[in-house]
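Run: sequence + zinc ion -> complex structure.
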Amino acid sequence: MSGYDWYCDSCGIIMNYQIGFSTDSGEWTCAECGCHNDVSSNNIENYGEKPATENQLRYIRKIENLLEINFYGSSFEEASDFINGNEDLYQAKLHTPYNYR
Ligand SMILES: [Zn+2]
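>> structure
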């Protein structure tokens, strides 16, 4: 799995920048300390979630206001699910004259 920062279990260094780093095999030996690390998707949840971006949150605020709903998540995944799930309704409502809402 790429797109994530992988930290060595032993020394805590970010391994993404180590020469030849790849998650293709699901394993990586830290070049710094020689510790063997699991870099498969199974291990991602142990590394914390990627937070929602500023752009996502800005868009979510608009959706919340217009649709009068609330977003309770905080991660990137939750934010994109929320946006994907409400975008159509938001856009439809946004372009509907006020009297017809
Ligand atoms: Zn290490």
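>> summary
The first helix runs from residue 54 to 67. Residues 3 and 49 are 12 Å apart (CA to CA).
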